[in-house]
Amino acid sequence: MAEIRVKVCGIRTDADLAAVVAAKAAYIGLNFFPKSPRFVTLEEARLLTHAAPEGLCKIGLVVDADDATLDAIVEAMPLDMLQLHGKESPDRVAEVKARYGLPVMKAVGVADEGDLAAVFDYSLVADQILVDAKAPKDAVLPGGNGLAFDWRLVAQRRWLKPWMLAGGLTPANVAEAIRLTNARQIDVASGVESAPGQKDAAKIAAFTKAAHMEKGGVPILR
Ligand SMILES: O=C(O)c1ccccc1NCC(=O)[C@H](O)[C@H](O)COP(=O)(O)O
Question: EC number(s) in its UniProt entry (predicted)?
Answer without folding.
Answer: 5.3.1.24
